[in-house]
Amino acid sequence: MGRNYSNGSIQNCNGLEEKLDEFRCLLGKADGDPLRIVGVGAGAWGSVFAALLQDNYGQYREKVQIRIWRRPGRAVDRTTAEHLFEVINSREDVLRRLIRRCAYLKYVEARLGDRTLYADEILKDGFCLNMINTPLCPLKVVTNLQEAVWDADIVVNGLPSTETREVFEEISHYWKERITVPIIISLAKGIEAALDPVPHIITPTQMINRATGVPMEKILYLGGPNIASEIYNKEYANARICGAEKWRKPLAKFLRQPHFIVWDNSDLVTHEVMGGLKNVYAIGAGMVAALTNESATSKSVYFAHCTSEMIFITHLLAEEPEKLAGPLLADTYVTLLKGRNAWYGQMLAKGELSLDMGDSISGKGMIQGVSAVEAFYELLSQSSLNVLHPEENKPVAPVELCPILKTLYKILISREQSSQAILKALRDENLNDPRERIEIAQTHAFYKPSLLGQP
């Protein structure tokens, strides 16, 4: 076998126990009281994040306990069960592990259609329903939310942004008696728009703060240009943990692995918003790829337009947008190459998926870009944010300078146009040179601090 999969096995410790002890000390954990880390939500990235921690620290059972919560009752369909069986039999290490744990027979029965498997059940054996092709290490899975979170020291939010508020409102009931509040690391990329009292963006960390009362100092965002399955397979990757210095620096050190470098940054909300923004344009990229038979030229034309719109939008959102250019482009690039939002755009354009199927897709999870299209369009349509149109010399809503975003809204949300409209938008003779849009952004004072809830 070409690659070494650790699957929870004891690796050389290279300072792991010291790192764990250091972090436990920072939290004031007494001997015999394990550091309790809980993942909430078991999508691809949430599951991989828990598995990385389990592989790294799971051997120190007296000192750390890693668990993941997911809802019970989600059945695995027959086709997925058949595919899962193939994956198991193609990996000798996984096959041996399941036989050793007396867990293999249920996969045989599911393959034959004699048994129904459930998502929480297979996750215990290391199979994430959204990422069947990448077996993880076995995980401790809890399906009762109260049991999972009530005494957690670190909670990792692996939920889609669209579910974050609801679940954390429930969690807040279980934390009423707590003396100290946990640290929360949010992996969610996505935003909501709010129009009162002024148009502004609400991010997952802000939703968590409002739902639970946990201070923003203890809520962090972790994101970066990465594909979950590749990170688990030890492809070299990096990410940023953003938030208050007191926790982001020790967490960056605690989470860092030889193949997964974690940097830290103070700019929490802007990085979170950028993570949502690239999903918008990834859907369009998938459509262009499918409609032009993967034409490199068409894709590059689209890339020029979508990056110019993203740069324009970052000038509305950030006082120093130049600092965001690298991380945003890297995250956009990897999402266009292999992300689920680009895949979704492709499937829509090919007619293999329809909008009526919703934005939670079997085997892929939540397509975050759809709700992000609606949120950004709604926000940037507000007349209170008007900017001066360079040619017409009159005030217009910012969305009027973002034709790709407008077109995606008409395809995905109002449904007044088909996927073909994205090509029409690219071929529009009246479309400004993308360079001009960037120049407009750079030469005008567009920054609107109120958009991110700043005074």
Give a structural overview:
With 455 residues, this protein is α/β, with parallel strands linked by helices. Helices cover 47% and strands 12% of the residues. It is built from 19 helices and 14 strands. Helix 8 packs parallel to helix 9, helix 12 crosses helix 16 and helix 16 crosses helix 17.
Question: How much helix, percentage-wise, in residues?
Answer: 40-55%
**Beta-strand segment tally:** 14
Q: How many whole angstroms does the radius of gyration measure?
A: 23 Å
Query: How many separate helices?
Result: 19
Largest sheet properties: 8 strands, mixed
Q: Structural class from helices and strands?
A: alpha/beta
Low confidence ranges:
1-12
What portion of residues belong to β-strands? 5-15%
- Shape verdict: globular
Question: Quick check: average pLDDT?
Answer: 90
The strand order across the widest sheet is 3-2-1-4-5-8-9-10
Cα distance spanning the termini: 57 Å
What are its keywords?
455 residues; 14 strands; eight-stranded mixed beta sheet; 47% helix; alpha/beta; two-stranded antiparallel ribbon; disordered N terminus
SSE map:
Elements: H1 16-26, E1 35-40, H2 44-57, E2 64-69, H3 78-90, H4 92-100, H5 104-111, H6 119-124, E3 140-142, H7 145-149, E4 154-157, H8 161-174, E5 183-186, E6 192-194, E7 200-202, H9 204-212, E8 219-223, H10 228-232, E9 237-242, H11 245-255, E10 260-265, H12 268-291, H13 296-317, H14 325-338, H15 340-350, E11 360-361, E12 365-366, H16 368-380, E13 387-388, E14 395-396, H17 403-412, H18 421-426, H19 434-443
